[in-house]
Amino acid sequence: MRRRILSEADWRPTDIEASERWLRPVTAAESADLADAVTALRASGRPLLEITRRDVPLGRFAAVLDKARARLEDGPGFVVLRGLPTADRPAEENRLMAWAIGTHLGVARPQGRQSQLISDVRDAGGTYRSGSGRGYNTNSELDYHTDGSDVVGLLCLNTARSGGLSRLSSAVAIRNALLETRPDLVEALYGLFPHSRQNEEAADEAPWYMAPVFSERDGAFACRYIRNHIRSTQVPGGAMEGAPRLTPLQHEALNAVQRMAESPEFSFDMWLEPGDFQLVNNHVLVHSRTHYEDFEEPGRKRHLLRLWLSVPGARPLSPALREVYKSVEPNSVRGGFQGRGITPELVAYQARAAAELGMRDTPYRL
């Protein structure tokens, strides 16, 4: 019999609104230390893959990141660092800033077919609800979902003319509430669901895989809810040939998660401001974004930089997630979408970054 999960990540919006522990304004001194590090990195001319934690002394800002990482695993599962010095900086320096922050938090993971380690979150005309659709390159409203790593980080550079609200819900709270009313749906969510790789699989990967939505190991809960990827497997024929059809109970369970996540009872909404860095633990929270309308001027369009991170101190994962995470052990490099752009330089970066953070590498085969 499944029991309620006790966790600080079991929260409702009223709990979050009553406490601003999730919001950390950056002081002028901390911001100056970060800015100095970025300036030095740009002057060095080193490519991103040659920059790891030891190359980025962040001074007083480093302690901010250490505390933020702890809150992601042991607290509410998200943190917003407010007031980073992004204004009036060249695009190259803001990318260096995102990367510099990432080096102190974890190991960057590839995010798609090109194996990119930083993604530009902006409307590039993509189609969300398609067999190869990804939400980050559209202006569409997104299903609540998790990303493919321990932690996702978003550095906000520009906001939209209207819309683009960031939304978070606790998967722990949803699971616990559903357990009280529909334990049969909770049990279904612990079963295996087919997931499409959205045409971004590596050459040696199948186009779809099986994984649970809810799982546990050694008392640690994890959610992997990517409805759009599950939906893609239900299109008959083609690359999805052989993917199991969802049962009525599985459909009902997925609908329940989406319905609860988007309800005011569970969803905490926030506007991200330029200079905000939002960090979210994908194992305990689901997130979304509302539809947005952009400015006409290219330089004013909504733009965020996204990092996927494998972080030290993250929870153990169920063996049922090995197919997608590659490793399910804590303190190991795991997660991401391998894609087809893995290079010797990326492999070397990963090994070096893991060693500096005290993590076990899970190397890609070239």
TrEMBL record:
InterPro entries in alphabetical order? AlphaKG_dependent_hydroxylases, TauD-like_sf, TauD/TfdA-like
Query: Has keyword Magnesium?
Result: no
* UniProt GO BP: antibiotic biosynthetic process
Sorted alphabetically, which Pfam families does this protein's record hold? TauD
Q: Which SUPFAM superfamilies match?
A: Clavaminate synthase-like (SSF51197)
**Record's superkingdom?**
Bacteria
Family annotation (Gene3D superfamilies): Clavaminate synthase-like
Which cofactors, if any, are listed as required?
A: Fe(2+)
**In the UniProt record, does the keyword Oxidoreductase occur?**
yes
**What one GO molecular function would you report for this record?**
2-oxoglutarate-dependent dioxygenase activity
Boundaries of every TauD/TfdA-like domain copy: 46-308
- Per UniProt, which keywords does this protein have? Antibiotic biosynthesis, Dioxygenase, Oxidoreductase
Entry protein name = TauD/TfdA family dioxygenase
